[in-house]
Amino acid sequence: MQTRQILSVFHRLLELIVRGISLLIAFVRGPAESQPPIKDLTLLHSATALALKIRNRQLTSEDVVSSYIERIKEIQPILNCVVAERFEEALKEARKCDELLKSQDAPSVEFLAKEKPLFGVPFTTKDCIAIENMQQTAGLVIRKNTVVEKDADVIRLMRSAGAIPLALTNVSELAMWWESSNCLFGVTKNPYNTRCDMSRYVIIDIMQCNQFTS
């Protein structure tokens, strides 16, 4: 019992220290930048909801992909989250999805729901996961010119489910740390508070979980 109390006090002290350091960093960095509000309601749907609307011809894959491309272009200068993109290729793949649905050989809604549950839906992945003909740096300067020749298994499975790779997002070096920061692409800012990186909230969440489970 005494050990738990000591750990609880330690967690609280550590949380206060982390909050204090974060506030100091935020003060030095200046006021947070505001993000453009989301006007395109397509961006508010879940992946499964988008897939349902696409296979039911309520939305086109091209429109969905275009919406995400435009949003990335809006927030990238503020957050620095994307390190490589394949927008043109993604749009071509989206158009093929739409053409298939319009063709005489269009698969049934039931078939798509079972075999291609993410048909026409765009996604991003971290820059430590291989996408064919794209860079894979894992945040390392020494790998800045590394281009992979084939998809990682997880990307292959996503494509098999009908999903469309859109871009690579920033990581820490070798994806070893909580924040997305490296010497190659810099720091990805927290979308909820651009004066911070993502690690602040991860650390606090972990400490709060430990407090309740200790």
UniProtKB/TrEMBL annotation:
Task: Tell me the keywords, alphabetical order.
Answer: Signal
Is Signal found in the keyword set?
Answer: yes
Q: What's this protein's name?
A: Fatty-acid amide hydrolase 2-A-like
Q: Supply the source organism's classification.
A: Eukaryota, Metazoa, Ecdysozoa, Arthropoda, Hexapoda
Every copy of the Amidase domain together lies at: 63-195
Q: Which InterPro entries match?
A: Amidase_dom (IPR023631), AS_sf (IPR036928), FAAH2 (IPR052739)
For whether the record's keyword set contains Signal, the answer is yes
- Write down the Gene3D superfamilies for this protein, in alphabetical order: Amidase signature (AS) domain (3.90.1300.10)
Q: Where is the signal peptide?
A: 1-34
Q: Name one GO cellular component term.
A: endomembrane system
